[in-house]
Structures are given as structure tokens and as C-alpha cells.
Amino acid sequence: MSLARSLKDGLQFHAQVIKSGFTPTVFTSNQLIHLYSKNGLIREAYRLFDEMPERNVYSWNTVINAYIKAQNLSNAQNLFDAVPEKDSVTYNSLISGYANRDGFEDRAVRLFLQMQNDCDGVRRDEFTLTTMLNLTAKLSALSWGQQLHSFMLKTANDLSGFAVSSLIDMYSKSGSFPDAWTVFERGSSSAVDLVSKNAMVAACCREGKLDLAQNLFWSKHEMNDNVSWNTMIAGFAQNGQEEKAIEMFKCMAVEGFSWNEHSFASVLSAFSSLKALKMGKEIHSWVLKKGIDSNPFISSGIVDLYSKCGNMNYAEFVYLKMKVENSFAVTSMIVGYAAEGNMAEARRLFDSLADKNSVVWTAMISGYVKTQQSDDAFELFRQFMERDVRDYDALLFINLLGACTTQAIVDPGKQIHAYIMKVGIEIDEKVVTAVVDMYCKCGSIGYAERIFQNLASRDLILHNVMIAGYAHHGYEYEALQLFEEMVKRGLQPDAVTFVAILSACRHSGLVEVGENYFSSMTEDYSILPERDHYACMIDLYGRANQLEKATVFMDKIPMELDAIILGTFINACKMNRNVKLANDAEEKLLKIEGDNGARYVQLAGVYASEGRWDEMGRIMKKMRGKELRKHAGCSWLQVGNRRHTFISNDRSHSETEAVHAMLDCLIQELEASIHEEEELSQ
DNA sequence: ATAGGGTTAG
């Protein structure tokens, strides 16, 4: 009787055995169990095991692994407990089963600790150690990883390709890239193991060091395999280098490697980021042709493509065909719906998920933030914090801070800030910038400043936020000073920096200083002025009562004048009481934004300021003819849980008398202090 | 002789 190679052979063989009435050897039965398990026939595998009159440790290990492969860890554990004499394979198998199952990691650790000390007295071998390294990588538990590494050095278990690649992966995933590099260099002194090289390429990509990754990839490139290519494609796609990812994707095929689900998933994400619907659709058809559209990574990639391209009907269609709940796809769709302001659909999807991870929560809450539904955002955040799970996403807190920022409510902002510190979120540049920005925009410039000053390293964006914060709160001197400091430290300002700087100048009427910065921007830093810079300059001239300069400046703007620039100019006309120039700009403005009620009101304001009631009446009539309205601007403040809103000439507040009395008081004090200052300066 | 471990993706 021959050995069983395929399932068909195996079944035939098994049938023969039964017919002949012979009892197969333990060895033969073990082989059959393995064959059944490999083909997913777990019940048959177990039955055979169960009917064996005699078993050895291989029989037990094989059937335990069958259950682990079938994700049935409780059966595996029961069998494990029943094994008369366990060996290292028995332990390693179950450790690996638990290590790879989310939420069961502690059991893997417990088994590992039990292993050498238990009555079984089974030695930890290289398999044990690499499996545990995997686990510590997954848990980003660097100190455990280091201990395992020491143990491996002591027991000379650190030399094989398996050991090296696991160590690289562990150090890389635990945020210790230099150690990963050291292990790689030491390990590759003999012969480079391909998997170790791939692991190192992946580590470089994870670190954002794409040049290093590429060098490695191309050195000894004759040994590269599919994984090497896919790693590079993924690396580029994840680091915002979509074009390079696509190039590598094409190159891979030219070099004779065939695309698999990893290649498709990565290139799909590149096309999604580029919103390249056409190319993405081509991949979609490829995927359908290859019949791999049921792969959850691929299908959620396709859903993401359509969602990012704003094609929610297609996204829904593809998702419906998936038939299984997939939080990645749902997250993409929630973001897609939020982008078109359709929070009802987003919420429907959110509520449809039985199992919500923190990314989904983040997407939903951030959607509310982006559509300015702050109350809903905070309400959902409250529910988020009430769960037992503690998986916090820094992005969520950044978004919530953004909500406080647009609402200019500092108390919830402080609470979020406190949460960030309390739940131990890693405070990276993004988080700290959001915190500083929140305090700036909510008017607590002192808090912002204190945080800013205490930071060990400050990048460009953080400087931009702080400079803008100073500029918006009347600290023009501090803004300009910080700018100079920043330049001295060797940070290159960008377009955003200059918007902040010019904005500081316009608030304080520093015409000449502003002009200098404006020209320095192109001459010294080669930054092309954008719309906001032009608008800032016009406003600067307007506020300084230099309308002629504003007019000349505007004529020289090389770009098409848009509503923002024209609106700024009209505002300058109003400050300078120049009805004629406003009149000239009116036509252009209404051509661009004739459907915006606010623009009519703005124009009306110019005419009213000069007492030109005829002109004002004309423009208001024009506005009403179009049935346009302007939302009243308002200010508000939060006291306790109540938000008090005020619009112009508003006396509807329940305590309006008291409010106005206090206001009068403040105005008087203000006037008195101005008077005093004037006397002092004389 | 038969069983267990490493790299890549949203």
C-alpha cells in the first residue's frame, strides 16, 4: 500500500484499509490525519484519531494542530491537557495558536512560562523562541523581546534565518529600528537569508526610510521573490509615494513575477489615494477575472477606492456582495458618506456593525466633527469612553480637539487634553500640534505658549500653529519674533508660515514689514504666493487706509481673482469708504458668487457705510429676487452645560438686562483706560 | 518516516 499524497489517494487508501480489515500502523494513521486536516476535513481527522487503538505523540500533535488550524482553540486546549507525554511541538503548537489569536495572548505567555518548569519539563527550543518573538512584536513589548533575544544569544538560538527575521521584525515593530538593523547586519555576515532581507526591507518601509529600503531591495536583487516586490509596493503606497508604488507594480510583472492578492491590495490603495477611479476600475476587473474578489483585503480595498472617489453607489454594491461584516470596508464608506455630508447613511453603517473597533469609532466621530455636528461628536465620544475596551486612537483625539477648535470651546478642549494624558496616548507631533492649536484658537494663548516652550523638539507645523496663534490674538510682536527664531534654528518656513506672518502684519498695520515679508517669501524662500497671501496684502493695505496701493497690488496678481480676493478688496473699500471701487468689483464678485447671500449683505454694508441707501436698496432687492439669505453671524459662550448664543441686536437672552449692564460697565472701563493711555502718551 | 516557527496587505 502506497503513501497517500493527494486527498483522493488518501481517501482511496483509507477505504482500502477499512475493506481489508487491517489495522493501519500508527505512522500511517498519523499521515492520514494530517492529510485530512490539510484539506479542512477536521471531523474526519478527529474521527480517525479517536478510533486509533494506539497513539503516539505525533498523533496528538497532528490532531491538536488540526484544531488550531481550524481556529478551534478550546478543542485544541482540551486535547493538549489530555496528552500523556507532551513534547516541545505540543507546547509550541498551542503557544503559536494563542499568540496568533487576538485576545488570547496572555495564554500563550502563560504556556511559555509553564513550559520549562512544569512536570513535563519540556525545553524551549528555537521554535518556541521565534513564536514568542512574534508575540512580543505583536504586543510591541520591547523589554520582553530583549529578554528573549538575550536568551537566544545564550543558548545559540539566534543564528538561523528564522531567528534573524523574527528578531528584525520584533525590533522593528517595537519601535527599535537601529536594533533591527544591527541584528540584520550581524546575521547577514554569513549568507543573506531572503526572508531576513525581506523583513529588513519591511522594517525600513515601516520607518519611512524608503531610500534605504530600495537600496536593500536592489542589492542582491536576483534573490528577490514575490514577497520582496510586494513589500516594496506596500512600502511606497503607505508612505505617500503612490506613483512609485504603481511603477513597482508594473515592473514586478515585467520582471516575471506574478501579482497576488498582496500586490493588488497595495496598488488598489495607491489608486484610491490618487482618486484614480479609471485605473482602480481596471484593477477591479483584473481581480474579478482572477476570482480573488472575495479576499476581504481586496474587496475592502475596492470599497475604499469607490468611497474615496465619491462613488458611494458602487461602494455599497461591492460591500453588499461581500456578505460578511468587514469593518475596514465600513470605515471607508463611513468616511465616504461623511465627505459628502451624509451623516445619516454613515450612522446607518456604523450602527450595523456588531463589532466596532476603535478605527470605526474614530471615523464616525470624526465625520460628525467634519460636518460640524459637534454635539453628536461629543455624545458619541461619551459612549466610546464608556466601553470596557481600552484601544484609543490618537486620531480620534486630534479630531475632537479640532471640534473644540472650530467651536472655540476651551473647556471640552481641556478635558480632551486631560483624557489624552490620562489614557496614556503617545503624544507625537500631530497630537501636540492639535493641542497647541486648540488652546490658541480658543484664546488660551498662555496655555499654548507654555506647552510650546516645554517641548524638546518643535517642527515646522507646530511653529506655524503657534505663530498663527500669536497673530490672531494681537501678539504680533511675538509672532514675528518666533518666526525669526525659527529661521535662525534652521527651519524652512512654508506657505502657511507666511500666511500667519502676513496676517500678523495686517492686524498691526505694519505695511512695510508686511511688504518685506511678502517679497522675501519668493526671493529668499522660493515660495509662490497663493490666494491667501494676496488676500492678506489687500487687507493689510485696506486697514492702513492705502486703498490705492491695494488697487495697484490687485492688478498685478497673476491669478484669476476669486471671491475671497474680491471680497477682501470690497471690505477694504468699505474701510476706506470708497463706493466707486466697490461698485467696480461688485459685478465681478457676483458673477463668481452670486448665489451667496453673505456677499450681497457685505456689498450692502459698503454702500450703507457711505449713506448710499439707493445703492444699498438696489443690492438688497437683487438678493431677495434670488431668494437668497444670509445666516446671521453669531457669537456664543459655554457656561456649564448651557451654550448662550448672541446675534447682532439680540435681546432675546433671558438675562439680557444684566448682560447689557455688565457690557456697559466694561465699555466704560475700556474707554477710561484708553483715555488714560492717551493722557500718558501726551 | 509523520507534527510546530520567520517576511508582505486594508
What does this structure look like?
By secondary structure, the protein is an all-alpha fold. The chain has a domain at 468-632: Serine Threonine Protein Phosphatase 5, Tetratricopeptide repeat, CATH 1.25.40. Helices cover 72% and strands 2% of the residues. It contains 38 helices and two strands. The protein has helices spanning 7-20, 26-38, 42-51, 57-69, 73-82, 88-99, 105-117, 126-138, 142-154, 161-173, 177-187, 194-206, 210-218, 226-238, 242-254, 261-273, 277-290, 296-308, 312-322, 327-339, 343-352, 358-370, 374-386, 394-407, 410-422, 429-441, 445-454, 460-472, 476-488, 495-508, 511-525, 531-543, 547-555, 563-575, 579-593, 597-609, 613-625, 656-681, and strands spanning 634-639, 642-647. The chain has a two-stranded antiparallel sheet. A hairpin with a 2-residue loop joins strand 1 (634-639) and strand 2. Helix 14 (226-238) runs parallel beside helix 16 and helix 29 (476-488) runs antiparallel to helix 30 (495-508). The chain is elongated and about 115 Å long. The model has no long low-confidence stretch (mean pLDDT 89). The protein binds one DNA strand of 10 nucleotides through helix 2, helix 4, helix 6, helix 8 and helix 10.
